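INFO batch 0412 | record 1 of 1 | parsing
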Amino acid sequence: MLDQGNNAELPAIPAKRYFTIGEVSELCLVKPHVLRYWEQEFPSLNPVKRRGNRRYYQRHDVLMIRQIRSLLYEQGFTITGARGRLEGETGRMESSMSHQIVRQVRMELEEVLGILRH
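INFO prediction complete | emitting tokens
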């Protein structure tokens, strides 16, 4: 999926469904105001917002933030370059997932056809 980059020094992500902005800040070693800024710059980073506009990030959001952090802080990308890189990866992932789904459906249909023939 997303390349973790050189994020070995980052803390492990606990097995939780949702994370607050403070927790994500600690998990990714990025200040909360930076996370809010990145939400504006990276459309694919879109945490759930609940009461009082509180943000709740999911595991895939945390992984994406770590990827953004790696691109910007470790690999030297600009915001525009990192956005382009992430959009390219997302497009390839979606294409790959579509192919996998089509293959799975085809296999299931062939099994059903085999059952119907007997």
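INFO post-check: The beta strands are 48-50, 54-56.
INFO record closed
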